[in-house]
Design a protein that fits this description.
- By secondary structure, the chain is mainly α.
- The N terminus is likely disordered.
- The chain has a two-stranded antiparallel ribbon with strand order 1-2.
- Helices cover 71% and strands 6% of the residues.
- The radius of gyration is 54 Å and the shape is rod-shaped.
- It has two helices and two strands; from the N terminus they run αββα.
């Protein structure tokens, strides 16, 4: 029967272990799980690291594990930053869209107001023009009814005066 000490010596060195642990509400504001990287391995034992080549192999294995864990951590941080940036952009886009819609609504109101004013001015011009034409026609009619007969009478009187001066008979 092996003792616990001999089991440790015979066991291979541990590689990087990713521990997924749940965070408490007191540890983190979010309820999501986070990954902790355990970069500690068992201390090297004499049997497995007997030669320099074993030591080189162990250190290169550890180096690869560390590189992988750093790359994974870097990728997760990049993704987290990317998601945060995308969220900010989405919020900004939503705010800009709402502002554009508000400007469009205000422009539509202003257009309706200006269109109403133009219509009112056009109706006022039509009414003024109709009034002007009615006044012109009334004046022309009055001139035709009163001024022309008066001028005709005045003209006939002068013609009669001229005939009487020269002794011509009236027609």
């Amino acid at each position: 029967m092996d003792s616990p000490a001999t089991e440790e010596i015979d066991s291979p060195p541990k590689s990087v272990i990713f521990n997924k642990r749940k965070t408490n509400a007191s540890n983190s504001k979010s309820a999501s799980a986070r990954f902790d990287f355990n970069l500690q391995s068992s201390p090297p034992n004499h049997k497995t690291l007997a030669t320099i080549s074993d030591l080189k192999e162990f250190s290169s294995s550890r180096l690869e594990d560390i590189k992988r864990s750093l790359i994974d951590r870097s990728h997760s941080e990049i993704l987290k930053d990317l998601e945060a940036s995308q969220s900010r952009l989405h919020k900004r886009f939503k705010m800009e869209t709402q502002a554009c819609q508000q400007v469009m609504v205000e422009a539509e109101k202003e257009y309706k107001k200006m269109s109403g004013r133009i219509d009112d001015c056009q109706e006022a011009m039509k009414a003024t023009y109709a009034e002007f034409i009615a006044d012109a026609q009334a004046t022309a009619s009055r001139v035709c009814k009163t001024s022309i007969p008066e001028l005709s009478k005045s003209f006939e009187k002068r013609l009669d005066n001229i005939r009487s001066q020269f002794g011509l008979p009236s027609a």
